[in-house]
Amino acid sequence: MLEWRRRREPSALMLGLSPLIAIGLTMLTGMIVFSAMGYDGFHAVGSIFLTPFLEPQRWADIGVKGAPLIMIALGLAIGFRANVWNIGAEGQYIMGAIAGTGVALATYDMTGWWILPAMMLAGILGGMAWAAIPAFLRVKLQVSEILTSLMLTYVAVQLLYFLVRGPWKDPDGFNFPQTRMFTADQALPTVLEGSLVHLGIPVALVLAVIAWLLMEKTTAGYAIKVVGLAPAAARHGGFSAARTTWATLLISGALAGLAGLFEAAGPFGQLTPQFPVGYGFTAIIVAFLGRLNPLGIVFGGIVLAVTYVGGEIAQSTVRLPQAATGMFQAMLLFMLLATDVLVRWRIVWRRRVA
Amino acid sequence: MTSVVPVSILMTLIAASTPLLLAALGELVAEKAGVLNLGVEGMMLCGAVAGFAVAFSTGSTGFGLVAAMFAGIAAAMIFAVLALSLMANQVATGLALTIFGIGASSLIGAGFVGRTVTRLQPVFPAALSEHPVLRVIFGHDILVYLSLVLVAGVSYFLRRTRPGLILRAVGENDASAHAIGYPVIAIRYAAIAFGGALAGLGGAYFSLALTPMWADRLTAGRGWIALALVVFSAWKPGRLLLGAYLFGAVMTLELQAKAAGVTWLAPEVLAMAPYLATIAVLTMMSLGRKTGRLDAPACLGKPFSAS
User: Fold this and answer.
1) Nearest residue on chain A to B279, alpha-carbon basis
2) Is residue B304 very low, low, confident or very high in pLDDT (cuts 50, 70, 90)?
3) Could you tell me if residue A212 is left (phi over 0), alpha (psi between -120 and 50 degrees) or otherwise beta?
4) Is the pTM of this model over 0.90?
5) A295 at the B interface (CB within 8 A)?
């Protein structure tokens, strides 16, 4: 009979291999599920996973979708490593965009190179402020950051609706619930002339390298990992769980806030009720697909960005509803969690003793 | 007719509380068995869409409810296999289940957006269910009464029956329960399934009773509030009932303010109320005691393996 045996050490091979196995299994399951629903499953999965790579004009789209996912996931992964479960990154992302837009609206009739940096700073602070609430409640009162950070996401969404329908509504916008368009000094510059590739993309990649250096090469990174793996040992070693909670939540709030500002000042160019697009939740999948490793997260961000871009392609090629992308991404996370078992366990065949 | 206003407020309150109560009660049982399933929102959405799709296709609300229950169980089983058999991290698996529920419900529901079904009807005859005052007691649909019966039933089960005692033992000390010979994993599977069934019904309450028209993500985070309610209840069914009705009241604030002609407060601010109230309640719960998780089952969220 088949039997699970616990490995003495987690398998390094499986650690790297299991995301690939998970992607393969997701494609297979996707084909079956979409076929069962009456779509052309084979082409659907092909459109989602392969077409975006094969068409160079889609690569910029992958970057645009991937940058916020990578930035948010970097912060989440650092927290997850320390057993801090910030699942309200979507709210911090929205608050970053709101804070940055506040600066944009205040500087509407001004010009200057400093405006965009000021917006970025506001975005970072907005995200941090929103993450500081669960951090405070967790550290001081042991309130679960899972629930508070998530509840704050719904609050942020309502605040966004309130602002774009009320005080921040564009006076020249024909009563549409949206803010003014950002001016040239407020918009995120593109780094490749004539393309969609904006500043956020190189920034995300640089941040990934910085996060990797932080986690792998510094004492702070080591402390974060120890707090997550062995809280008791961390206490003996003098690493404070409270400080780790604060630090990881503020870092992930800052990154989500900056991602939100980049999205508002980049692809959106204004704030609208369509702004919450779920990147904060999808970034959770990115973090796990990247094995909570900053460089792995770049890979994870690209894969999830591909499913977004591919999902749009599948809409036109096999009429797969847009919602299929979400289910596909969730399946990927399921498969990833399932194949994770191979890291800690191995399957052995043992004849039953009679 | 002044008495009619409080009656209608109470009716809305009870209706708004019922899905919370159902979902939270199911989660309470799962948590008592030591399993933290954060996928309540996802299971509710699966129930909501399955209930709606079946009720729409068959024209029978009853079939819809049964389908919702099984959809909730099916979703819960994905979680159970990953979290129990494959020992995946429960927090991550629960999140995955919610992300899955959001995706699956919006994919299946894509063809139903804007469609309507017959609303879940009151159980008692019109003479009682439409009486201006008595309808507070007799004017509800089957799920309202079922949720109340289940509160009493679960409370009795956990406190007075042997299987209930075993379930609690599994949640408090899985290793000992295993050593005595209780099937820890099987009991947890059953508890998760029960939680899934109730979350499915709670979700269907949105699509079949509250707003019998399909809309994307119509549970709007209520599954998460249900999770918070379990903490608020200190894992006691009676307190869960109180908590669910309190939150039902907060959730109807927006409607009541609108009815009362309140214009100085933006509707968006009122819509924040349930979420802010959840944070406030969780905070107060923590202020009330010295250590954070005193009442939680000791093995909550920890994976168990016999070997």
Assistant:
1) A148
2) confident
3) alpha
4) yes
5) no
